[in-house]
Amino acid sequence: MIIQLAPDADTDLVKRALVAAGLWVTALHDGSRRVSHFSVSSASSAVEATDLLRIPGVASVVSPASAHPRVDASPSTVDVRGVVVGGASRVFMAGPCAVESESQIDAVAARVAAAGAQLLRGGAFKPRSSPYAFQGHGEVALRWMRRAAEANGLRVVTEALGEADVTLVAEYADLVQVGSRNMQNFSLLKAIGRTGRPVMLKRAMSATVDEWLLAGEYLLEHGAAGVIYCERGIRGFDHATRNLLDLGAVALLAHVHHLPVVVDPSHATGRRDLVLPLARAGLAAGAAGVMLETHDDPGRALSDGPQALMPAEFSTVMASLRSGSAEA
Amino acid sequence: MIIQLAPDADTDLVKRALVAAGLWVTALHDGSRRVSHFSVSSASSAVEATDLLRIPGVASVVSPASAHPRVDASPSTVDVRGVVVGGASRVFMAGPCAVESESQIDAVAARVAAAGAQLLRGGAFKPRSSPYAFQGHGEVALRWMRRAAEANGLRVVTEALGEADVTLVAEYADLVQVGSRNMQNFSLLKAIGRTGRPVMLKRAMSATVDEWLLAGEYLLEHGAAGVIYCERGIRGFDHATRNLLDLGAVALLAHVHHLPVVVDPSHATGRRDLVLPLARAGLAAGAAGVMLETHDDPGRALSDGPQALMPAEFSTVMASLRSGSAEA
Amino acid sequence: MIIQLAPDADTDLVKRALVAAGLWVTALHDGSRRVSHFSVSSASSAVEATDLLRIPGVASVVSPASAHPRVDASPSTVDVRGVVVGGASRVFMAGPCAVESESQIDAVAARVAAAGAQLLRGGAFKPRSSPYAFQGHGEVALRWMRRAAEANGLRVVTEALGEADVTLVAEYADLVQVGSRNMQNFSLLKAIGRTGRPVMLKRAMSATVDEWLLAGEYLLEHGAAGVIYCERGIRGFDHATRNLLDLGAVALLAHVHHLPVVVDPSHATGRRDLVLPLARAGLAAGAAGVMLETHDDPGRALSDGPQALMPAEFSTVMASLRSGSAEA
Amino acid sequence: MIIQLAPDADTDLVKRALVAAGLWVTALHDGSRRVSHFSVSSASSAVEATDLLRIPGVASVVSPASAHPRVDASPSTVDVRGVVVGGASRVFMAGPCAVESESQIDAVAARVAAAGAQLLRGGAFKPRSSPYAFQGHGEVALRWMRRAAEANGLRVVTEALGEADVTLVAEYADLVQVGSRNMQNFSLLKAIGRTGRPVMLKRAMSATVDEWLLAGEYLLEHGAAGVIYCERGIRGFDHATRNLLDLGAVALLAHVHHLPVVVDPSHATGRRDLVLPLARAGLAAGAAGVMLETHDDPGRALSDGPQALMPAEFSTVMASLRSGSAEA
């Protein structure tokens, strides 16, 4: 955003008013001493141009057209077959990293529902750094998960990993997940958008908020019923946690862009002992919900066992998050 | 941490138990097929070696000696002239970025106290990226701040910027602040430690948690009465916020290291409109308190005006944080 | 890598020998004073276990199995229809960001060949952050590029963006490119691998070297004839350059892993005025070649015009790089 | 930088000319369809405003005043007691991390001189992450180093760690080093500036180029005879190398700001096996010189042994760098 000054503006007075409005500004001039414009840093508070135009001495306020008009126009809630994400009630999504067997997902689904979550998560197609790691059970896992969800009154959220799987996944899922490694897989975004399903879009490991919203724009432009954003930790330099949970971005989406955003503290930290405090923090920052990994027997998990909550832990964490107490 | 296996260990069983304990492990061997050790990633849950030794097949658990024994042995609270940081009550520190005049600090101190904060913050010596920016009023500002704090029942926290100022600052401050740019200014850490004061140690922009704790160790080794850690945002790639608040590190300090840590959402975001949600998130993550910037007339502030809360906003934010409601 | 000490080892002597070998080591013990192991940091020089086993007091050297055996076993050169990348001669790939018209690619191809490059680059399918940006001309662009390449004795390198395009792209390309946003699009990697073509794999914006090599493993495991790695800049915090060229990674691939790696200074810097010095630096670090963007009329380019070299600049840069003079 | 358009400008024509000049531009408007300004990204090529004003339709070019006028006005060379850094000849600085004994520094100095380096490096006051690590021998080490340098026709570069040591260090050093952890220790910068010595300013681990230049401005404003910038690697997410050498920043300082900059590949990589390729790459990117760590017996080094070149390696590396061949 750029503020253009009137020729007779009192530069100091204008600057004072802009700073008072929460803007980080830099004076610009053409080499002469007269300041003709102020540039506004992107880390400034969100302010309406109309408010700035009321400041005496401000001639015009110019900015780029939004690059994501559909995102801007989208509502702050997304309906996932009757479960509203972004509304008054917090939404919880839980389940194992991967769907490993019918009995596993049945048992987990029952616990997930009992603990008060509304969505069952679980991977049928798994993105794995190594070609030799377990890649998911595919279609049969989708069937198991769907059945387990239905039996427990849950919605299904699961990832579509490749373009070829999109139709299949959309058939079984109430909410189609885009994984962080695919946030800028534009062919996949288009294919998923075309299914008309609501989508949960995980942020890529080093995506800016703008890039994240542009990925949402791809989905909406191609037909997605709505987009829920999921912050799951970005790449950081300190390996004391698996990833770096960026709650500033969550607050920005929730409070400035008014979009539904959830946090995934399991992937963000990789540490079971930090899942609860970071889930609470995510909700406090403005998240509409939390996605949690839980497993009946994490030691036998085919992926991400160390970060999956044990059954008893999971119940405690859910109870704490649902009570929403500040001590939580 | 490395787990050494007994010669007859069942590798799979041991691995399962380690994963179940929340550890990310990698099998190690000498080129033969037999796994003799597991290495444990730093992003694993904290687990006691004694618990691991009970797993059948674990021969020994080896790890480096702690590099910061004094930090490890320090209590989870720090007493700042009667105000306990890290205890049952949340602590709030507030004030302007810089002490600009006697009347300014008097007015702010009254509001800070009225809103329920316990410490008055304000800079007499300011670290500024540019040599041409306001560098602080020095000793006279310390006197003004001390008087304003006393008049309102507040404690004083202020930064010691150079070794030459340490004695002077320690005379006026109840809590001596080390700024993020000085976190590894070891000469300064030693000088401040020698004053015997409690210290608030801001994390450097790209410091790992380990480096932060080692800086605390310098302070304690040289005599500091206690160290409060302050997360004020690290450097990130996305300039939508001024810095990147790392609440994973806050949770780690609070819940694993059991150390008193506070968050500074003003510097972390640079955005007045995100201060409240990130302050709440910080407390939810485990912070013992919050440091806030507020100014009676941010437009006239000599530094960081855009992120300083306006008087009315400040009162609202404080009320919300003190009520501690989850809806806050 | 972990070094296990013999029970009677002289710890200091062993440590000295390990440090002398270029290893960053940390002493590990079980809580008693006796050091039983040393852990070796990943940032250490590459050393053979057999050399370490000769040090008196070293009982064993254990490490994880390589996660990318096919990468490890692959030769240091890749043949792209007769052009050897990674051999004695440096390889240059040049062309526009996108193939925009037949006349454009004809003109550029002629210049590229005249300047001494061996491969023609150009996008038919373009990954764009915005759904409203030019997405490439698709198949017709592949035909134009193929014809232009043939007419000038060049090989074709072009990106396969979606799984559905892979077969088509492989038909026209001598070297199939995986873009940085797709480095961990595992479905795409598998599909491209299955074509049996050699592949140029761009590093993702925040991929570690290990993740990059694992993506290469996916390609090889599924049939790729060979993998050339391309460093195009990672995400950094300083926006003075578009991206951050990581020549430490290039040196690591070239000199430790003995893999063919090329650099793309156009994307790395985004600045035409820094392309030449960074291309030189990439070659000096061990790159087997350079990929350059050039356009006949950058002002009219449909993407990335600001970083495309002008015709005259391009010839100068190529001449400088091919002469390989130190002043270059 | 902002470009203001004339009311009757042909927006497309202006944009084309700006892109052709190497600028990344974004159209700005006040909500109406008319574009009144273009903003120019910081990652654009450096272009003179006078050149842009010649484009038909450009009304004015506005930008912030430089924040570092003394840096901008400083020459591209710095004289270190007769050794010119930034001129036609490359400059080499070498020595141990720390000065450990008189005999050590005597031996190293002789080798350093024999290999053709002009400056002897070595620490008398050492910044160490841990308070329990070797902190340097202090004044006596300065005396040893001075004597060793004189005996071999070398200049001395060494770090001033604390304000209290500045006068002493300046007495013995020809070039006073500011370490990366102190780049924004403004009290120290002022004290060192006041000695009137030339200074070598290491970049902080997460400093932007702008912050680095502003630190240089502090030094010059307070009297430094000149500033040589040293890139020693920034903090990165991949621990395959100790730090991340940012040669884009080196090229920027050398080719756009025309400032003398040297690279320190020893700290940048931490890996002896990558020192040579990255030293070469640094020179190719525009560095005026290289700083190298070497030790007669790295296994016994009191700090940073793993990255110090062995005597024979050092001679080979120096020969290769001095020959300056592209194959080097």
Essential attributes:
homotetramer, 328 residues, alpha/beta, four-stranded antiparallel sheet, 12 helices
Lateral arrangement of strands in the main beta sheet of chain A: 7-8-9-10-11-12-13-14
Oligomer: homotetramer
Report the C-alpha radius of gyration of chain A, rounded: 22 Å
Strand content of chain A: 15-25%
Q: Number of helical runs of chain A? A: 12
CATH class assignment of the largest domain in chain A:
Alpha Beta
Give me the secondary-structure category of chain A: alpha/beta
Under CATH, the topology of the largest domain in chain A can be stated as: TIM Barrel
CATH superfamily of the largest domain in chain A: Aldolase class I
Number of E-type strands of chain A:
14
Main β-sheet of chain A: number of strands, strand sense, barrel status? Answer: 8 strands, parallel, barrel
User: How many discrete domains of chain A?
Assistant: 2
Give me the CATH architecture of the largest domain in chain A, please: Alpha-Beta Barrel
The outline of chain A comes out as: elongated
Give the fraction of residues assigned to helices of chain A. 25-40%
Give the largest chain-chain interface (CB within 8 Å): A-B, 70 and 70 residues
End-to-end distance of chain A:
40 Å
Q: Give the integer mean of the pLDDT values of chain A.
A: 96
Notes on the protein architecture:
4 copies of one chain form a homotetramer. Chain A has 12 helices and 14 strands. In chain A, 64% of the residues are buried. In chain A, the strands form 3 sheets. The first copy, chain A, has an 8-stranded parallel barrel, surrounded by 7 helices. Chain A has a 4-stranded antiparallel β-sheet with strand order 2-3-1-4. Chain A folds into 2 domains: 2-62; 69-323, Aldolase class I (TIM Barrel, Alpha-Beta Barrel). In chain A, helix 4 runs parallel beside helix 5 (139-151) and helix 7 (186-194) packs across helix 8. Helices cover 35% and strands 19% of the residues of chain A. In chain A, helix 5 links the parallel strand 8 (119-121) and strand 9. Chain B binds chain C through residues 2, 4, 26-31, 36-37, 39, 49, 60-65, 235-237, 239, and chain C through 2, 4, 26-31, 36-37, 39, 49, 60-65, 235-237, 239.
